[in-house]
Design a protein that fits this description.
With 484 residues, the protein is α/β, with parallel strands linked by helices. The protein has two domains: 350 residues, Alkaline Phosphatase, subunit A (3-Layer(aba) Sandwich); 102 residues, 2-Layer Sandwich (Arylsulfatase, C-terminal domain), CATH 3.30.1120. Helices cover 29% and strands 19% of the residues. It is built from 13 helices and 19 strands. Strands 1, 2, 4, 5, 6, 7, 8, 9, 10, 11 and 12 form an eleven-stranded mixed sheet that branches. The chain is globular.
Length: 484
């Protein structure tokens, strides 16, 4: 071979190797992020948090290889509000997303709010959501308009359809007046299935999972953010034939085992593609169990009440985080952390710029990575329902303000039919030490006036910033949702 040609080939080969090494080095500094978000999954609904009657080996393995968070919170114990906070790092009251949006809602997430997908797009990430969106069903509110490259799923809850248990036996007139239209399954911006059937619902967990695995396979050469938002175990419960009838717990247990299978499929895809050491995986839920559904609902374990309340059973969720060689394996963190913290933490690990507007979450890398003596970054955490500031936590102390809440005081429902809630009241200030009384059973307000005074003062800061309809205060720091 001509010497000059030989040297040229060597230089060309070395440049290719150098480019490959540089690309690998750059790729290695940009971790993937996978967020798996269940719906209405209670604190004690997975094995490593105390579930009984079924198995969750993949989530339990995640915990053995990662870290369990036992004081992990959502912003509100209801669907849309909770998801808005996860995706923006803000208390949902700040950005005007309350309750559970439906087909009648004419508002959704504002285009000026930065979602976690838009956050990482700044750093060159591929992004996708598969599953339940619930931040507005008009096209301007859907995921592709808010930073996600791909979307396949339901625009809102899977019970918002003509088969809703409240209207399934109603007259045509009542259904027309109060019932739900056909439920679409959306791909991108268009309905892939205009009218979801019960048979379709049995495939939802599988379909979401298949899309998630395919996304990982297609994007293994570049950084990605995957948001897998399961529709289950929100009622109505549906499960594929792969898991139907598998558990002692019945249909609810079958559904959770299929979600666990989904987690396993995602983890396997990450490992097969050589991404294990460079991927943060987070598993948690949007709110506590919908207790009125009885055997079709989950469990809040030691905590009081469930979905739709600011008691711990409504807002404290199971959370597992896994990132080999970054998050210490087999560990537990009991410091307060929350879904609002995921946004700024992801910003920190991806070197993405935070928005200029106010967010409420904090960087929790010291808690994730098990740094010695790491403490929660929150001086206080605020429990809103709607626009009501119903409680506040600081350290081990939680103060409830007078408010009404729903409670299941009678027999729960069965087999997909709910029982009715009754309205209960917190009639005066109530103080609980969550370290010694996580079930909020013993009001110790008379014994700690100095704690009460401090928490009341912190609450005034929240009212000034975020507002409080209980005290008729309008916050100075709130922003409008998007409107049609």
């Amino acid at each position: 071979m001509n010497r000059i040609l030989f040297l040229s080939c060597v230089v060309f080969f070395c440049s290719l190797v150098s480019s490959a090494v540089s690309a690998a080095e750059v790729r290695g500094t940009q971790p993937n992020v996978v967020i798996i978000f269940a719906d209405d999954l209670g604190y004690a609904d997975v094995g490593c948090f105390g579930a009984e009657g079924y198995q969750t080996p993949h989530i339990d393995k995640m915990a053995k290889e990662g870290r369990r968070f036992t004081s992990f919170y959502v912003s509100q114990a209801v669907c849309s509000a909770s998801r808005a906070s996860l995706l923006t790092g803000c208390y949902n009251t700040r950005i005007g997303i309350l309750g559970a949006l439906s087909h009648r809602s004419r508002h959704g997430i504002n285009k000026n709010e930065m979602t976690i997908a838009e956050l990482v797009k700044q750093a060159g990430y591929a992004t996708a959501i598969y599953g339940k969106w619930h931040l507005g069903h008009y096209q301007k509110f859907l995921p592709l308009q808010h930073g996600f490259d791909d979307y396949f799923g339901l625009p809102y809850s899977n019970d918002m359809w003509p088969y809703h248990p409240a209207y399934i036996n109603a007259s045509p007139e009542i259904k027309k007046k109060r019932g739900f239209p056909d439920l679409p399954l959306i791909s991108g911006n268009k309905a892939a299935i205009p009218a979801v059937t019960p048979e379709d619902q049995t495939h939802l967990t599988t379909w979401y999972t298949e899309h998630a695995v395919d996304f990982i396979n297609r994007n293994k050469q570049k950084p990605f953010l995957l948001y897998l938002a399961h529709s289950m175990p929100h009622v109505p419960l549906f499960v594929s034939s792969k898991f139907k009838g598998d558990t002692k717990r019945g249909l609810f247990g079958d559904v959770i085992e299929e979600i666990d299978w989904s987690v396993g499929q995602v983890l396997e895809a990450i490992k097969k593609n050589g991404l294990d050491d460079n991927t943060l995986v987070i598993f948690t839920s949007d709110n506590g169990p919908w207790l009125s559904y009885g055997n079709h609902a989950g469990s809040a374990g030691p905590f009081r009440e469930g979905k739709g309340t600011t008691w711990e059973g409504g807002v404290r969720e199971p959370c597992v985080m896994r990132w080999p060689d970054k998050i210490p394996a087999g560990t537990v963190c009991d410091e307060l952390a929350a879904t609002i913290d995921i946004f700024p933490t992801v910003a920190a690990i991806t070197a993405a710029a935070l928005p200029k507007h106010t967010i409420d979450g904090k960087d929790i890398r010291p808690l994730m990575f098990g740094e010695k003596n790491a403490k929660t970054p929150h001086d206080a955490y605020y429990y809103y329902y709607g626009r009501e500031l119903q409680a506040i936590r600081s350290g081990d102390w939680k103060l409830h303000f007078p408010h009404s809440y729903r409670s299941l005081t009678g027999e729960p429902g069965r087999d997909g039919k709910p029982a009715g809630y009754t309205q209960q009241k917190v009639k005066s200030l109530e103080l609980y030490n969550l370290k010694t009384d996580c079930g909020e059973t013993t009001n110790v307000i008379a014994d700690h006036p100095e704690i009460v005074a401090r928490l009341k003062k912190l609450a005034e800061h929240a009212r000034h910033d975020l507002g409080d309809s209980l005290t008729k205060q309008k916050g100075n720091g709130t922003r409008e949702p998007g409107h049609i």
